[in-house]
Every structure is written in structure tokens, then in C-alpha cells.
Input
Amino acid sequence: MAGYPLTSFYFHVAISGAGGADAAFQEVSGLGSEWDVEEVREGGENAFVHRLPTRVKRQNLVLKRGAVDHETALFVWCAKTFEQGLGARIIRNNIVVKLLDPDGAPVLKWSFWGAWPVKLDISGFNAKESEVAIETLEFAYQSMDFGYTKGASKQAKAG
Output
């Protein structure tokens, strides 16, 4: 399977301090990074502007899933963070997202260090529809690193 494209639906999320069953999500987003760019105009030079990198911006990590029993370790951590406000220390946990190859082996890995919940939302309710209630959890974090996992196959790296 040389050069096969990875599918986006086969992934795994692990959150320190939360049980394995509590980390099953239908959607992950916020994995991007981008440079801030400063434009510097040179005196007497009107043909171009110098564009210089300043710092890397990262998005918040967003996890979505069907709403579950709110007695879970993950939900309790998130709710407690919001309920106690700034009067208490915010508990941070690490979150790891792995994209898996067709055999279930991790290929790409994003590690979010020192994450804490900044948004907790449950979709609106509508008696005319029979949709699952969706819970959205959004996290800010101290730092993030990304790369191929140690066991990533050569085919995935070639693609």
C-alpha cells in the first residue's frame, strides 16, 4: 500500500486523568498551526514589503461526541474547572491525539501538554428531530508537539 492517503475517521484520543471509555469522540479539530507575519516597509523602497515571521499561533483543541452520562471523569474535570472559577487552581491534563493507519497502528501524533477546558457546550434540543445531542469540549493548552509516531510505517511517510 505504498503512498496510500490516511483516512481521517480512524483516530484515538487519550486524556490523562480520564478513563479510556470517556475519551471516545466523533470529531477532533484545532490541530493547526500558523505563523504570525509582521510586515516591515523599507524606507525609499516601494516595490515590496519585507514579511517576517514573529510567532506561531495555535488553535484551541476541539473534541466533539454524543452527550454521555455526566458522572464521567472527563466531564467532572471540565465542569469543576468552570464551577470553581479563578478562585481555585485550574487542573491541567495532557491530551494525545493519534491518527491511525488501516491496521490500527498510530502514524501521526499530536500531544497537547497542560490542557484545560475553556468551553463546554451541548447542542440545542429540538423535539421535531431525532438527532443525538452533541457535546463539544474545547481546550487551551500550554504547548503542543506534532510528528510521526515511532512505529509509523514507511508507506504512511511516503504518502
Remarks:
- The first strand starts at residue 11 and ends at 15.
